[in-house]
From TrEMBL:
Gene Ontology CC annotation, any one: cytoplasm
Keywords tagged on the record: Cytoplasm, GTP-binding, Hydrolase, Metal-binding, Nucleotide-binding, Ribosome biogenesis, RNA-binding, rRNA-binding, Zinc
Residues of the CP-type G domain: 102-257
Entry protein name: Small ribosomal subunit biogenesis GTPase RsgA
Enzyme class name: hydrolase
PANTHER family assigned to the protein according to its UniProt record, in alphabetical order: SMALL RIBOSOMAL SUBUNIT BIOGENESIS GTPASE RSGA (PTHR32120:SF10)
Chain positions recorded as Zn(2+) binding sites: 280, 285, 287, 293
Cofactor(s), by name: Zn(2+)
Record function comment: One of several proteins that assist in the late maturation steps of the functional core of the 30S ribosomal subunit. Helps release RbfA from mature subunits. May play a role in the assembly of ribosomal proteins into the subunit. Circularly permuted GTPase that catalyzes slow GTP hydrolysis, GTPase activity is stimulated by the 30S ribosomal subunit.
Oligomer and partners: Monomer. Associates with 30S ribosomal subunit, binds 16S rRNA.
SUPFAM superfamilies per the UniProt record, alphabetical: P-loop containing nucleoside triphosphate hydrolases
Annotated source species: Sphingopyxis lindanitolerans
């Protein structure tokens, strides 16, 4: 156990969490934040405290009752054993890779989501839409961060494609190795603020974290010749202290992101289709061969694109199937 001079407020503590602690809990327990998740243990920090503790909470059954990075826990003042997870402001989760019946927690209590993609052939509008759905579903403001601008002569082409997804979307283009370039992200990294970093493998997240922190503590691998991508080297979910007083929550690169119960998020990201569908003749229109389909008419007129429509159908179908499997499993 280490003693630190960190305050709860500096760690991201807000009234939302303090209001959940009542009576004897305030005397017998102390709040700590989960800074990293390892196999069989978690790193936590609180006022004047930094240590590793067990992640297992007595009586916790659903996976959501177990701690994830960014969580606030109450632990026993004497034994440091975890008592319970405080209610979350938000929780990012996905279908577990290989088993869509299970959900996997990603991060909790986030103020801003940096969706990281690279300015090369790996750039994908469909992938960005998935991450945007994830952010909108839990009510967290997203910022698309396009990295590796030093590898292209046309970074604005990628930025324009990202901005076209959603009106008013924040999009920043940066060279992850250049502190002056990365400084554009400082507005979201103030004292006590928590920024989560999500993105696919090899988009330059570790390089970006190193520059934001002003250190080289996170191992990065060289870009592979020929395709301009790297291999992700973040192996645990953890929070990093930033110079401006904020916290950067880094996660391993994701090779797949299957959404979990994201109906509201899909509706928000694809609100153009949702609004258009209200003009269909039939309320249960599947936007196939039904007469009077406003969506198909808009695609034929060029108002909406068939590619975006296909992505909408794919996400909506995936979400409904995943939700049905989850309900069946819980039964």
């Amino acid at each position: 156990m280490k003693s630190t001079d960190e305050t709860l407020e500096a760690l991201g503590w807000k009234a939302y969490f303090s209001e959940q602690i009542m009576g004897e809990e305030a005397e017998q327990c102390r709040p700590v934040r989960v800074m990293a998740v390892h196999r069989g243990k978690i790193a936590v920090a609180g006022a004047g405290l930094q240590c590793f503790i067990s992640p297992y909470i007595p009586g916790a059954q659903p996976s959501d009752d177990h701690p994830t990075v960014g969580d606030w826990l109450l632990i026993d003042r004497d034994t440091l054993e975890p008592i319970r997870v405080l209610g979350r402001k938000n929780l990012f989760k996905r279908r577990a890779p290989g088993d869509p019946r299970k959900e996997q927690m990603i991060a909790a209590n986030v103020d801003t989501l940096f969706i990281v993609a690279s300015c090369n052939q790996d750039f994908s509008v469909a992938r960005l839409e998935r991450y945007l759905v994830l952010a909108r579903e839990v009510g967290v403001d997203p910022v698309v961060v396009l990295t590796k601008t030093d590898l292209t002569d046309t970074p604005e082409t990628f930025a324009a494609a990202a901005r076209a997804i959603e009106p008013g979307l924040h999009v920043e283009t940066v060279n992850g190795r250049d502190p002056a370039s990365v400084a554009r992200l400082a507005a979201w990294c103030g004292k006590g603020e928590t920024v989560a970093l999500l993105g696919s493998s090899g988009v330059g997240k570790s390089t970006l974290v190193n520059t934001l922190r002003g250190s080289d503590n996170i191992a990065t691998q060289a870009i592979r010749a020929g395709d301009g991508t790297g291999r992700h080297t973040t192996t645990v979910r953890e929070m990093h202290r930033l110079d401006r007083g904020g916290w950067l929550l880094d996660t391993p690169g994701m090779r797949e992101l299957q959404l979990a119960d994201a109906t509201a998020g899909i509706s928000e990201v694809f609100d153009d289709f949702i609004l258009m569908a209200q003009g269909c003749r039939f309320s249960d229109c599947a936007h196939g061969r039904e007469p009077g389909c406003a969506v198909r008419a808009a695609i034929a007129e060029g108002t909406l694109t068939s590619a975006r429509f296909d992505r909408w159908c794919k996400l909506a179908g995936e979400d409904s199937v995943g939700a049905a499997r989850h309900v069946k499993r819980r039964r």
